[in-house]
Amino acid sequence: MTGLWKRNTWLYGLRTPFSLVFIGWITLAQAIAPSFNLQIYLLTLLATFLGLVVGAHYIDIGSSREKFSPYLKIPRSMLAVGIVAVALGILVGAYMAARWNIFFLAFVLVEGFAAVAYPRENPKVVHSYIGFGLTWGTIPFLGAYFIQASTLSLLAIGLSIFIGLSVVMMHHLAIMSRDSPAWKDALYLLKVYNYAVYVVAIAAILGRFVVV
Predict the structure, then answer these.
(1) Considering the entire predicted model, what is its pTM?
(2) 10 in helix, strand or coil?
(3) What is the DSSP letter of 124?
(4) Residues 39-70: pLDDT tens digits?
């Protein structure tokens, strides 16, 4: 935590680069769907940003003042802002479900629950490698694909499992970069992973608009 990110808790709470990686996987899911609606994509990004980027991370920091206060000045309103952001993200997702596919509401409710349960570590099963892989990888990816395609494919399911595993490995690399004697190697691999996801996501979304 250096520079502006350390001085401004609100910016630190956005948790980049992980949040950008997460948005990259959401982008890939929608770009590989057989149909693509730009409005759905933008609303998906909005719901994701509100609920799983702002909401979940602000709840994490706001409800763990003892853990973060030695490093950050935590505003008292941070927890409340996080809860409101999750609620707004759920509302955006519910609107999308009502407009395009009511079954999408199942993904919205699961991820809305995870946005509150994971940072608060209650129930414990959500705050585990399996829980993290499912709620920050597999399920969001499937939900993003589903709202564009109105169905699921074997390709989407297979990729979602891989992405669930990959975000767990990314999480583990982040821990190693702080605690492991080989932290420099872990940090290097983490950067390679981050930029690889950006490239894949950008290439996939450009493929929807650029005809070669």
Answers:
(1) 0.88
(2) helix
(3) G
(4) 999 999 999 999 999 999 999 888 877 776 66
